[in-house]
Amino acid sequence: MSTTATDQIKGGSFLLTPLGHLPQFTPEEFGDDAKEFARAARDFMQGEVIPRDEEIDKLDLPLSVKLMKQAGELGLLGLEIPEAYEGMDVDKRTAMLVLEEMSKQGSFAVTYSANCGIGTLPLVYFGTDAQKKAYLPKLATGEWLAAYALTEPGSGSDALGAKATAVLDGDHWVLNGTKMWITNAGFADLFTIFAKVDGQHFSAFLVEKTDPGISTGAEEKKMGIKGSSTRAVILENCRIPKDRLLGELGKGHKIAFGILNIGRFKLGVGSVGGMKRILEYTIKYTSERFQFGKPINSFGLIQQKLADMATKIFVGEALNYRTIGYLDDALHATSWDSPTAGADKMAAIDEFTIECSISKVWGSEALFATADEAVQAFGGYGFSAEYPPEKAQRDCRINRIFEGTNEINRLLIAGTLLKRAMKGDLPLLQFGQQVAKEIANPPKAGDFTGPLARLKHGVELSKRQCMVAAGLAVQVLGQKLVDNQEVMARMSNMLTEIYAMESAIVRAERMLENGHRWAEIARDMTELYVNESWHRVHGDSRMLCADVVEGEALRHALAGVKAFAEFHPTSSARLRGRIASQLIQRGSYPIEII
Ligand SMILES: Cc1cc2nc3c(=O)[nH]c(=O)nc-3n(C[C@H](O)[C@H](O)[C@H](O)COP(=O)(O)OP(=O)(O)OC[C@H]3O[C@@H](n4cnc5c(N)ncnc54)[C@H](O)[C@@H]3O)c2cc1C
Question: Is the pTM of this model over 0.85?
Answer without folding.
Answer: yes
